[in-house]
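Appendix B, example 12.
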Amino acid sequence: TINILNIYAPNNASEHKNFWETIQTKWSDQHAGTIDFMMGDFNITEEPIDRAPTRYDNETAIEALRDSRSALNIHDLWRIENPHQRMFTFNSNRNTLSRLDRIYTSERHSESMLNWDSQISPIPTDHHIVSVRFAPPGLPHIGKGRWSWPIGIMTDETLIKRIIKLGIEHQERIEGINERNDTSNPQQTWSELKQK
C-alpha cells in the first residue's frame, strides 16, 4: 500500500498553522499509517530560492508546514538533491515566480525517486504539474510492453495492400474450415497471419 496525502493549502498565510495542525490530527485519527507522498499546492515556499525575486515567505506558515513535515516524517527530496537549482511552478500576475507545487517523500523512498520534472498542465490552470518517477526495488519486471506498429510505415501503400490481401486470404481460410482440430482452427490461422 502506498499512502498519498494530497494538499491544497490556504492562500492566506495566517490560516496555515491551523490547517497543518488539522492535517496532522486527521491523519493520526484515521490510523492511516505512514505517509509515502504528500503532494499538491502548498501556497508557500520554504526557501527563498523558490521565489523570484528571492524572498522569505511568512515565517509562521513555514514553521507550521515544517512541524507537520517533521511529524509526518516526509522531506522535500527535490530540494535536497538540487540545493542550488530553481524550478518554478507558478507565475503570478505580478510577474513573480514561485515553487508552490511540490512532492514530499518519505525518507525510505529517497533511492527510488528519479526524473523530477515540472511541465505546463494539459488541464487549463495557472500552475505547472510536478512529476517524478517512483521506481521502488522489488517490483515485477514488466518487459518491453505491448508491441505496436512504427508510425513511419503506416503510410506505406505497398505494405498496406499486402496486409489487406493476406488478411482476406486468411479470413477466407477461416470461413472454409469445416471441421475444427488442433491444426485447423481460427486461432491457428490468425497466429500464422501474425507471423508473416
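Helices lie at 16-29, 59-72, 77-81, 157-175, 186-195. The radius of gyration is 27 Å.
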